[in-house]
Task: inverse folding
């Protein structure tokens, strides 16, 4: 069995994305992929690997997670994340965080340090303080780009799922910045997945998306690990991450085929996902104009891409 | 084949020593809810309206763990959650962290119908409730004396409890010590001090439309902010073209196995019929977990399954089948 890793930075990227928006994100993906590869090569457990990589993505201000999260209708930050271990099927999730620097790590602590799976809002923030994780003022997470995005969305009377419409004449053309996620398998076939996000631009305060919902945005079992991105409401309704795993189990077909099958069943322009299987297969399908993604496998293959063809 | 069908539940996991009068009380409530649902179905109300109606009734009655009568958090407060799903287009709505909304399932329905979102929680959900003009009450309304007593015992046992009913005879309470001798356990606790009592309803109407809804106060002595399986689509609740499902029991087990979705998945991908699907997920999907499931199919069938000692439930179909049970 061989290790494999995939990373995403969100589905839905307008073809018009200018280089000054594209390059930092590609560089970010490359960096996070390298961090993940090094961790796998050093024989770290996939659960540690996905947490590590997603922490990097959260810290990166150009992705919609942690710092760089999109804003609610009130201009505030509400972050959410989840993590799942394929072998034990233990999972952890958090929502409504506004001061925790690394939501994915708090999700892991919920999994490991509480009898619960999911903590949210004030309760989650209180738990963070009890655990002594790094917390900062909410302003730390807010970037000028996101203030602008919120303004545009409110002017247009729109709730954006990290995206603008493909042909929207948005001045900076980069409305589509997405949720982040990582899936990994080591060479013993252990699998893990993690996803993290700031949610949707201009979302209602208190809105929870697919990211912290086990089975929707994140899932892992002994067959595969999945992280999804896109329109949260569609991913929840489609139980996307779980469906990939269910189909692998029930249909016994390849990961690639399963992923394509699941994509067929969600509405167009709503969803993207990354998945790895216990045998080291990788799939990164999406039905949006693009998806920030990267992957690598032990046999030396690696790829960083946004639209259909790899761009290295 | 065809015709309407309905099932309701009041939680999986019942103390075998539960006094007769408590069992009868539960059966009376389940019967009443079943009747409300059946009457609504006979008046041609669509499935989605019927599940909401029935779950509202369960929330309003203080007997089970939802709405009034909800289990208490570690702080002695109530935080409720619920979800609802409409099979035909798989529209869904969910809420968590409610403290003043009299009927959580109805707010979940409003999230589904009146917002671009699927899930609202805590302060944001409460605020939404205010804008919608739903009935709001003080948190104290939901708290019952029984549950205050349970929380105290739970803290003494220093454990998480789903909810439980300690058999009471007059003013005498069985203490934790005696309770801990009970051999049956759920979520690490003896069954005599635990009973989940989440509520739910699944319905298929005459047009073959399925719907499901689940509502709960959650785990006794839970951490504030804790979310369980009930509001999570695919775990506690699921409905699609084929089936409507509501689950209850150990939240972690239900989430890890995405139990509600699983019923539909084995029907879709393995071609099992409804009862086979319910039996299959209970048998194979829960590992060490304990849970119960109620489900209806678009063909007018109804099925229940549980690997716990008992599940408060009731079901009925248009052709006259009817059953209310605890064991």
Result:
């Amino acid at each position: 069995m061989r290790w494999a890793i995939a990373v995403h930075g969100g589905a839905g990227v307008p073809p018009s994305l200018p280089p000054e928006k594209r390059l930092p994100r590609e560089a970010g993906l490359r960096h996070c992929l390298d961090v993940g590869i090094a961790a796998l090569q050093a024989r770290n457990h996939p659960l540690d690997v996905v947490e590590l990589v997603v922490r990097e993505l959260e810290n990166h201000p150009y992705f919609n997670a942690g710092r760089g999260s999109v804003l609610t209708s009130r201009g505030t930050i509400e972050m959410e994340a989840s993590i799942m271990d394929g072998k034990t099927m233990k999972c952890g999730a958090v929502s409504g965080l506004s001061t925790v620097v690394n939501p994915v790590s708090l999700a892991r602590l919920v999994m490991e340090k509480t009898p619960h799976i999911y903590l949210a809002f004030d309760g989650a923030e209180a738990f963070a303080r009890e655990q002594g994780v790094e917390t900062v003022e909410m302003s730390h997470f807010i970037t000028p780009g996101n203030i602008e995005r919120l303004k545009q969305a409110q002017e247009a009377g729109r709730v954006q799922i990290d995206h603008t419409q493909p042909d929207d004449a948005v001045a900076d053309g980069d409305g589509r910045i997405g949720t982040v996620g990582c899936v990994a398998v080591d060479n013993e076939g252990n699998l893990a997945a993690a996803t993290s996000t700031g949610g949707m631009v201009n979302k209602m305060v208190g809105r929870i998306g697919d990211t912290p919902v086990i089975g929707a945005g994140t899932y892992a079992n002994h067959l595969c690990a999945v992280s999804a991105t896109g329109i949260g409401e569609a991913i929840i309704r489609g139980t996307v991450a779980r469906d990939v795993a269910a189909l692998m189990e029930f249909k016994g077909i390849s990961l690639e085929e399963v992923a394509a099958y699941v994509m067929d069943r969600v509405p167009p322009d709503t969803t993207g996902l990354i998945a790895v299987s216990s045998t080291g297969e990788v799939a990164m399908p999406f039905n949006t104009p693009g998806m920030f993604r990267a992957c690598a496998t032990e046999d030396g293959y690696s790829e960083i891409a946004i639209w259909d063809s790899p761009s290295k | 084949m065809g015709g309407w069908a309905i099932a309701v539940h009041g939680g999986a996991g019942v103390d075998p020593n539960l006094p007769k009068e408590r069992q009868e009380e539960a059966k009376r409530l389940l019967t009443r809810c079943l009747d409300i649902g059946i009457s609504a179905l006979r008046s041609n109300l669509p499935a989605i309206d019927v599940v909401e109606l029935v779950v509202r009734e369960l929330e309003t009655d203080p007997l089970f763990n939802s709405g009034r009568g909800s289990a208490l958090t570690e702080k002695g407060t109530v935080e409720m959650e619920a979800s609802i799903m409409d099979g035909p287009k798989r529209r869904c709505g969910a809420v968590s962290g409610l403290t003043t909304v009299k009927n959580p399932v109805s707010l979940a329905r409003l999230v589904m119908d009146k917002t671009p979102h699927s899930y609202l929680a805590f302060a944001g959900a409460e605020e939404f409730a205010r804008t919608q003009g739903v009935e709001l009450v003080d948190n104290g309304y939901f708290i019952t004396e029984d549950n205050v007593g349970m929380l105290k015992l739970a803290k003494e046992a220093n454990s998480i409890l789903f909810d439980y009913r300690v058999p009471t005879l007059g003013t005498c309470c069985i203490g934790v010590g005696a309770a801990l001798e009970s051999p049956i356990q759920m979520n690490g606790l003896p069954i005599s001090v635990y009973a989940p009592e989440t509520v739910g309803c699944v319905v298929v109407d005459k047009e073959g439309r399925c719907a499901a809804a689940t509502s709960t106060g959650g785990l006794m002595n839970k951490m504030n902010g804790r979310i369980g399986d009930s509001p999570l689509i695919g775990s506690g609740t699921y409905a699609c073209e084929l089936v409507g499902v509501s689950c209850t029991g150990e939240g972690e087990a239900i989430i890890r196995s995405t139990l509600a979705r699983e019923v539909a998945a084995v029907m879709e991908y393995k071609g099992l019929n409804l009862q086979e699907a319910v039996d299959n997920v209970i048998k194979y999907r829960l590992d060490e977990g304990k849970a119960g499931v109620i489900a209806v199919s678009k063909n007018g069938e109804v099925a229940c399954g549980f690997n716990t000692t008992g599940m408060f439930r009731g079901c009925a179909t248009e052709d006259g089948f009817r059953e209310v049970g605890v064991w």
About this structure: Residues 161-176 of chain A have pLDDT under 50 and may be disordered. The interface with chain B takes residues 89-91, 93, 95-96, 114-124, 126-127, 159, 203-209, 213-216, 219, 232-233, 236-239, 242-243, 246-247, 250-251 of chain A (CB under 8 Å).
